[in-house]
Amino acid sequence: MIPSHQKLYAALKLTDNDIASVIEGGLFNEVHRVIRSEEHFYIKSFADEAKTPGFPPLPTTALQRYQVAVDLHENAQKVVTGKVYVPQLLAADPANRAIAMEGAKGINLYEYIVNNETFHFAVDQISQVLAWLSSLHTLENSNILAISSNSDAFKYYKAALQYRAIFELLFKKNLEGANAFVNEHLTLQATLLHGDLNSRNIIICEDGRIAVIDFEQGQVGCGSHDVAYLISEIIIASFVVNEEIEALTNLLWSHYETNATNIDKYKRFRRHLGFQVLYRLKGPSRHIWTGHLNGDIKAKIETWCKRELCSRL
To answer: Which of 153, 220, 243, 271 could be disulfide-bonded to 148 (CB atoms 3.0-4.6 Å)?
Structure first.
């Protein structure tokens, strides 16, 4: 057992006979799995310093990310649509910047996306998550201003990493439009966003349900950002299985946005999508998302991204 988590252990009614072990976390957090009989829980603690020496600090403090995680998680777990749910937030400890949550037993969605044989199963799971996401984005929230104040600096940080750093790959004629788009993205304050809705934060559970986890990168903006963040992964996989990209994109969008007349939101989604696919192909974490692809596939994806952004910006 970890001494700093005694408050959370007490809230969960754990004893010294229960097992706690460290599992893989992020650069700025640690995750522990706690097992009690047939149950398991996760405890996540947030840090101001990175695990890797010399890695620069994030623009938001551990306390801010803790608060965003708690606030957004509490709101998101209110939304249950079909098979999609958010594991319960069971306890929180602000003094140690740590939260305890219900465990979700299963395999993350990423494993299904990169397996050609389960591609269409992955599309179905994403469709269900997008319907859930639509409900999250229309959820009325009284503490949206608090979440915005704690997350705005991180939103700017991610925009610089995933959008402005990609500008050098664009055609010069598209730079003005790209800059205007990112500036608009940074000012939109329409709804709560998950902020990091990738396939590793979606668990396909043993009981058939779909769990959405990890809310500390939550922010306030336009829902089209969350949608593109997730769909970008299946677009990449579609190049491997030769799926018709335009039809797939519009099909997935229809599971999120049922109002076909919302043209401005659709345009923002397509711009986000072009940037997010290109970021996963060329960004610093590219080995995670596209490292398994051969050179020909990567070239086709890059061509699609540039064509997409050229026509949308």
So the answer is: 220
| Residue-wise burial string across 210-226, b where 16 or more C-beta atoms lie within 10 A, e elsewhere | bbbbbbbbbbbbbbbbb
Place of tokens 């958010």: 86
**CA trace torsion 283, 84, 135, 264 (10° rounding):** 30
Count how many residues are written for the chain. Answer: 313
Tokens of 231: 């769909």
Q: pLDDT of 77-129, one tens digit each?
A: 999 899 999 999 999 999 999 999 999 999 999 999 999 999 999 999 999 99
What residue type is assigned to position 177 of the chain?
Answer: G
- C-alpha 145, offset from chain centre: 21
Taking the alpha carbons of 80, 84, 89, 94 in that order, is the dihedral positive or negative?
negative
Q: Is there a contact between 195 and 151 (Cβ–Cβ < 8 Å)?
A: yes
pLDDT tens-place string over residues 263-295 = 999 999 999 999 999 999 999 999 999 999 999
Handedness of CA 86, 92, 94, 98 (dihedral sign): negative
- β-strand partners of 107: 204
Q: What is the pTM of this model?
A: 0.95
